[in-house]
Design goal:
Pathway: Cofactor biosynthesis; thiamine diphosphate biosynthesis. By secondary structure, this protein is an alpha/beta fold. It has two domains: 7-101 and 204-318, 3-Layer(aba) Sandwich (D-Maltodextrin-Binding Protein, domain 2), CATH 3.40.190; 104-197, Periplasmic binding protein-like II (D-Maltodextrin-Binding Protein, domain 2), CATH 3.40.190. 38% of the residues lie in helices and 16% in strands. It has 13 helices and ten strands. The protein has helices at residues 7-10, 35-42, 45-48, 63-68, 79-87, 132-144, 160-165, 176-186, 212-217, 219-238, 240-250, 258-270, 286-298, and strands at 20-25, 51-56, 74-78, 93-97, 104-109, 125-128, 152-155, 171-175, 190-194, 206-210. The strands form two sheets. It has a five-stranded mixed sheet. The longest helix has 20 residues, at 219-238.
């Protein structure tokens, strides 16, 4: 049966002169941040754009590393990973903003009545994930509320969520649209502080990107891929039930709780993450890039290939491009 695409979706898609194979590396196991990729694949949007797209399964190698080394043409990139790898010399360019606003937050159990504002986190135990971003982030939030920014860190990785539930740590960080939605459904009850309310710039927490060299050599293929991907995300926003079913089916058994996937997607939609309040889908905001890049620079998180903090703040306008969205 021939698939007829809505005009609004078809308008996003640009077809390259020649069909190309394109490989995409994920930044984590399949989740709703990736839903536009799987929707575009399932609806034949990549095929219509003349592309043969392979979505690589998540591996221990960072997606940015796979892209920088030519193993994948595109990768889903966390903002922290992208900025730090770029500063260290990786040829990476962000070409699509998966989310239009920050999805992370500081969380703690709802019954911790002694925690009323970030300064109350001073001296408590943080269950962390081992990145330099966490120290800069949390200390900034606490200091913005008048605290000292001092806390104890126990590096736990994803087991931090169990540790929080078991009261082995006092607070941690989570992606609201995934772990936060799960906690709201399954407990334990949480309260949270939004980063942007306490001195941390709002940001696109996830990008899709490629190398500058590949983009320069393959502009039509890049535009075909990004515009078809954008159409996939747009379709997911307008058709969440169908999109949730597609993601679950494409996860090869990794995602089994369809209701949870649907709830996560609902928050991404109603919270204006996948589609901004201004209607933007995939567009990278210059102000947000510069603000969070400057934050990383000031926190000395941006280091060269030798591990030395950059002496001069980069021109962040050269680190991204909206030229491939197909508008």
């Amino acid at each position: 049966m021939r698939l007829l695409l809505p005009v609004a979706i078809a308008a996003f898609i640009a077809t390259p002169a020649l069909a190309e194979e394109v490989t995409v590396a994920l930044d984590w196991t399949p989740n709703t941040n990736h839903i536009g990729l799987y929707v575009a694949e399932a609806l034949g949007l990549y095929e219509k754009a003349g592309l043969d797209v392979t979505i690589l399964p998540y591996s221990d190698t960072a997606s940015g590393t796979l892209v920088a080394n030519g193993i994948a043409q595109f990768g889903v990139l966390s903002a922290v990973g992208f900025f730090t790898q770029k500063a260290a010399g990786a040829d990476l360019v962000a070409t699509y903003g998966v989310v239009q606003t920050e999805t992370g937050r500081v969380v703690f159990l709802a019954d911790r009545e002694e925690i009323q504002s970030p300064k109350d986190l001073d001296g408590l135990v943080y269950g962390g994930f081992g990145s330099a971003w966490e120290e800069a982030l949390i200390s900034t939030i606490i200091k913005a509320d008048g605290g000292e920014g001092s806390f104890e860190t126990v590096t736990l990785g994803t087991s931090a969520y169990d540790a929080l539930a078991n009261r082995a740590v006092d607070f941690t960080l989570e992606v609201y649209t995934w772990e936060g939605v799960k906690a709201e459904r399954d407990g334990p009850a949480q309260r949270a502080f939004r980063y942007a309310d306490f001195g941390v710039p709002d940001q696109h927490t996830t990008f899709i990107g490629a190398t500058g060299a590949w983009l320069e050599a393959n502009p039509e293929t890049a535009t075909a891929f990004i515009s078809a991907t954008r159409a996939g995300y747009a379709h997911a926003v307008e058709n969440p039930d169908e999109a949730a079913d597609i993601l679950v089916a494409a996860s090869d058994g990794f995602l089994t709780d369809r209701d949870f996937v649907r709830a996560s997607l609902e928050e991404l939609i109603t919270g204006n993450y996948l589609k901004g309040v201004d209607g933007a889908i995939g567009t990278i905001d210059a102000g947000k890039i510069n603000a969070i890049g400057s934050f990383f620079f000031d926190a000395k998180m941006l280091r060269d290939g030798n591990g030395t903090p950059l002496a001069d703040k980069p021109d962040f306008s050269a680190w991204y491009s909206n030229a491939y969205l197909g508008e």
